[in-house]
Write a sequence for this structure.
């Protein structure tokens, strides 16, 4: 599919396709202008992919657009309605309370992407909130979402961030900022729930038709496209959550309004990559019962998908019993799909090729070893990726990560036995492992340091360094080798906050 990438925004059609849905799916609302917009960061690669001129985006007109002070030509911005289960509790009306879609653009591969401002002022869905965002959470979302993209994990992206020149009041006054984020779609499980909860089946159908046309056009030819939609969403979430687990990512607020129909990671709040491997790990200050702990994520995924399936039941068959059976059958696939994606990924991380019980056992034993030794998840896998089969001299790199290396030594001899049966040479195994075990993740303490340097000293050096290493996470960066390391004890971040 080819289309012209215009160099100026005036030649482009940024019209929002969501606007053709029934009027109660959204509210047309313009961003509230801000006092003194200043560009903090522009994602030039993403801009080019969307066919947007970097020069224009960096110009006063472009910055004004990213700040919500001017609209893209011919577009009526909008905020969408949605509901959701927050920590298991049903909330019938949420919606974009501080996000406004300002346009839609096709990327180079012809995929339509929504462009949204986050922190751009109140909307009819703000429920008393100010519609704004502080610089810390905006920077956090920018870094984390771009780090996920570079890891190859489906995610919303960050096109740019601006400061507003206005304070926002949280626990204290903080500089206000606006993130421009881009997604294949911002429809959430909670968007379907909003209409299902009001028994508005025609709206659920219209929404389903919209996402099918936009994201699953192949489903349109089938006998029941809604069944294919359900199966597709289940498959994408199983794959996504498996990827999270494999890099130690904890989303932190897996409410149904934060689960995207596209299978992209969305709504970066108190999310974090864990340092030490701890299956029950929770960072979010608001997740008091550990509902969204690291190891809970696959189960929560199924819980959320079950809520999604409930909204589609009226569309799955004319006969209700048949419809419910069909939804159950689709959901029953999820555990198998998740284990297939996760299991395959874990074996790759271990440098093992064959999916058999012995290999799976050695992989689980490694995770148990990490948990027992509270060892650094990312660093252990990265260093394991450099070991040689017949020369244990290099093992010290991994051994030294454990207070007591004896269990690792016992484990590594079993691992080597497994590797020997596969007859792969060191070089290709090492390369394969390094391509899936990142050297760099957006570690909490680095994110915190970047925010502090920028807020306190106006110094963007730490942010730029962090974006550089997390932007090519599988490659060594000799000058930033420190960024591979876990935090020193005094640098450990114990809690993360929503920042709303
Ligand atoms: P979140 O926890 O960020 O996913 O947000 C949950 C809900 O609260 C969503 O409907 C948001 O739009 C809304 N919200 C969060 N922060 C604000 C804010 N500062 N102003 C208005 N609405 C907000
Ligand atoms: Mg949200």
């Amino acid at each position: 599919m080819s289309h012209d990438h215009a160099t100026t925004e005036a030649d482009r059609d940024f019209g929002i396709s969501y606007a053709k849905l029934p009027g109660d799916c959204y509210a047309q609302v313009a961003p509230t202008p801000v006092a003194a917009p200043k560009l903090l960061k522009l994602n030039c690669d993403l801009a080019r992919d969307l066919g947007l001129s970097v020069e224009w985006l960096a110009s006063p007109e472009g910055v004004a657009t990213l700040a919500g002070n001017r609209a893209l030509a011919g577009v009526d911005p909008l905020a969408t309605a949605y509901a959701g289960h927050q920590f298991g509790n049903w909330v019938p009306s949420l919606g974009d309370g501080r996000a406004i879609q300002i346009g839609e653009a096709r990327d180079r591969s012809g995929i339509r992407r929504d462009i949204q401002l986050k922190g751009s002022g109140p909307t009819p869905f703000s429920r008393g909130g100010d519609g704004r965002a502080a610089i810390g959470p905006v920077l956090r979302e920018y870094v984390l979402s771009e780090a996920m993209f570079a890891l190859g994990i489906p995610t919303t992206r960050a096109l740019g961030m601006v400061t507003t020149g206005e304070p926002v009041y949280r626990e204290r006054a903080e500089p206000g900022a606006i993130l421009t984020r881009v997604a294949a779609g911002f429809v959430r499980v909670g968007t379907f729930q909003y209409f299902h909860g009001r028994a508005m089946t025609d709206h659920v159908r219209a929404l389903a038709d919209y996402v099918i046309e936009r994201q699953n056009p192949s489903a349109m030819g089938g006998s029941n496209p809604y069944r294919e939609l359900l199966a597709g969403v289940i498959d994408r979430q199983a794959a996504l959550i498996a990827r999270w687990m494999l890099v130690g990512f904890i989303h932190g607020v897996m409410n149904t309004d934060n689960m995207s129909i596209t299978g992209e990671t969305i709504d970066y709040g108190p999310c974090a990559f864990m340092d030490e491997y701890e299956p029950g790990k929770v960072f979010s200050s608001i997740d008091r019962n550990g509902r969204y702990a690291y190891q809970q994520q696959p189960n929560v995924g199924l819980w959320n998908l079950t809520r999604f399936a409930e909204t589609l039941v009226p569309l799955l068959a004319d006969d209700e019993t048949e419809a419910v059976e069909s939804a159950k059958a689709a959901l029953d696939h999820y555990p198998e799909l998740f284990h297939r994606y996760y299991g395959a990924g874990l074996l790759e991380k271990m440098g093992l090729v064959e999916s058999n019980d012995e290999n799976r056992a050695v992989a689980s034993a490694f995770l148990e070893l990490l948990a027992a030794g509270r060892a650094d998840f990312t660093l252990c896998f990265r260093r394991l990726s450099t070991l040689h089969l017949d020369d244990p001299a290099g093992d010290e790199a991994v051994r030294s990560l454990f207070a007591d290396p004896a269990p690792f030594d016992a484990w590594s001899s079993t691992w080597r036995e497994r590797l020997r049966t596969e007859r792969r040479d060191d070089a290709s195994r090492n390369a394969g492992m390094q391509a899936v075990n990142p050297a760099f993740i957006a570690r909490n303490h680095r994110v915190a340091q970047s925010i502090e340097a920028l807020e306190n000293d106006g110094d963007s050096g730490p942010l730029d360094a962090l974006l550089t290493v997390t932007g090519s996470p599988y490659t060594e960066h000799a000058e930033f080798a420190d960024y591979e390391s876990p935090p020193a004890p005094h640098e450990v971040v114990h809690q993360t906050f929503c920042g709303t």
